[in-house]
Amino acid sequence: MPSLASPSLSGTDVATVRWPALGTTAVLMVTDASARAEARALVDAELDAIDRACSRFRTDSELERVNASAGRFMTVSPLFAEAVQVGLRAAWLTEGAVDPTLGEAIVLAGYSRDFSELEHPRDELSGSGGLRPIIRARRPSGWRLIEIGHDPCGVRIPAGVRLDLGATAKALAADRAAAAVQAATGVGVLVSLGGDIATAGPPYPGGWVIHVTDDHRAGPDAPGQTVTITGGGLATSSTTARRWLRDGREMHHILDPATGQPVQPVWRTATTAASSCVDANIASTAALVQGTPALAWLSGLKLPSRLVRATGEVHRVAGWPDDPSSPQA
C-alpha cells in the first residue's frame, strides 16, 4: 500500500495530520494550514459515518443489521445504499472479481474482527481438526440478486448471502472525505486511509508526492517507487500487509470469489491510478484476483498501474512511469 512521502516545498503552507482510524492509519494533507482543524473534523465525521454504516466489527452497524435480515427489505441510510451501489458497480465492472458478497467466506478465513487485533498472527482455531473448506460459504453470483430501493431507501440481500463492503467502503470514505474538505474550505486536500488515496482541489505545486510500497505503514525509504499525482485517486491492494494464521495456514484478506479462498500469489502488490480512489481500488483489487491476465485488462482500460510479482519483478502498464532503481520485467 502507498506510503506518503512528506513533500518539501519551499514557501508552501502545508499541514499533515496522521491518526489511527478504521483499523488502519488516516493521513490528511491540506495546502493551507489554517484549514487543518476544520478539515480534520470533516474527515472524522465521514469516517464515523462510514464506520456506522459499513463496519463488520460493530453489532450496531447497518451492514450487520442488513446481514442479519437477509431475505427481507431493510430501510437504510443514503450512505449505506451508496456503499452497496459502489460494491455492486465494482462487481459489474470486474465481472465478479471484486464481489461484495464474500462476507461469510472472509469470516471463515479468520478475518472475523478488526485487523488491529490480528497484528500478531496466531492459530485462530487451535485444535479444530483442520481448515474448514471456505468454498462452502459461497453463493454463485449473489451480488446479482441484491435489490436497492429509493423510496424508501432500502436494501434486500438474498437469504444465505452476507455482505462485506470492505473492498470498496474505505476508498469511498476517502473520496467523500476529500470532497467534503475541499467543498467546505476551498483548499487542496489529500486523504489517505490505509494507503487508499483520494485528492480534491488544487494540489501542491508540483503535485502530491507518494511513495508506493507493499505496506502503507512503511516509511519513504522502504523498497518501492516514488511518484507524483496532481488529482484523482491512487490505491494499492496487497497480499503482504494483512496476514494471519488459520489452523496453521497463513491467510490474507484478498479472496478469489470463484473459490472463497485467498487468491493465488501471482502478484503481491498492485497499484493503480484512476479518476477516483474508488475506481483505483476496484482496479487494483481485481488485478490481484485476475493474476497474469490483469496486465492486458489494465492496459485495455488505460489505467496506469504498477504490479509486483511474488518474485519481486515489477510490471508497469498504461503509462505508469519507469523507475530506473527498480527491476522491470
In CATH, the architecture is: Roll
How much strand?
15-25%
Q: How widely separated are the two ends?
A: 21 Å
- Largest beta-sheet details: 8 strands, antiparallel
What structural class do helix, strand and pairing data support? alpha+beta
Q: Give the SSE string.
A: EEEHHEHHEEHEEEEEEEEEEHHEE
Task: Please give the count of helices.
Answer: 7
Q: Strand order of the main beta sheet, please?
A: 2-3-7-8-11-16-17-18
Task: Describe the protein.
This protein is of the alpha+beta class and 329 residues long. The chain has a single domain, classed as Roll (T-fold), CATH 3.10.520. The protein has seven helices and 18 strands. The chain has helices spanning 36-54, 62-68, 78-93, 103-108, 169-185, 277-290, 294-301, and strands at 2-4, 15-21, 24-30, 74-75, 147-150, 153-156, 189-193, 196-200, 208-212, 225-229, 233-238, 243-246, 249-252, 255-256, 261-262, 267-274, 305-309, 314-317. Strands 2-3-7-8-11-16-17-18 form an eight-stranded antiparallel β-sheet. The protein has a three-stranded antiparallel β-sheet with strand order 1-9-10, with no helix packed on it. Strand 14 (255-256) and strand 15 (261-262) form a beta hairpin. Helix 6 (277-290) runs antiparallel to helix 7. It is globular and about 55 Å long. The model is unreliable at 5-12 and 111-139 (pLDDT under 50).
